[in-house]
Task: structure prediction
Amino acid sequence: MANDLWLRGDEARRRVMGEAYVAETRSRASSEEDVEFDDFVTQLGWGATWARAELDVRTRSAITVMALVANGNELELEGHIAGALRNGLTRREIAEIVRHAAIYCGIPAAKAGMRALGRTRRLQEEDGLDFTGSHLIQRDE
Result:
């Protein structure tokens, strides 16, 4: 059941990750437990964290990229790199965050971060995806 925290979280999640990402994530929920976990993440991760006013989304994206590099979570990292681009970070800034992570998190973790950054570049170049603005946009060029 949607409550205020869930609604704020859903809005923040769609703004950062894009409509397509959220829809695809929700479509993978194959059980009641999956749906409940997704609601949990929406409320706590997005509603109680990302929707807070104390840090802007650009700063939150930089912190999140660093944390995901530290944890070696390439799959989540790709989505959050796209979100970071959407939130105003440049590729150079993201690469610098990953470089900084190499010192504190280790070279293997940072290499995984650079691979994820490379995959998002390919998505932009090959599929014409634009991660700027508030939503994932398909360019018609």
About this structure: The beta strands are 129-130, 137-138. The CA atoms of residues 78 and 119 lie 7 Å apart. The helical segments are 4-17, 19-27, 32-50, 57-71, 74-86, 91-105, 107-127. The chain has seven helices and two strands.
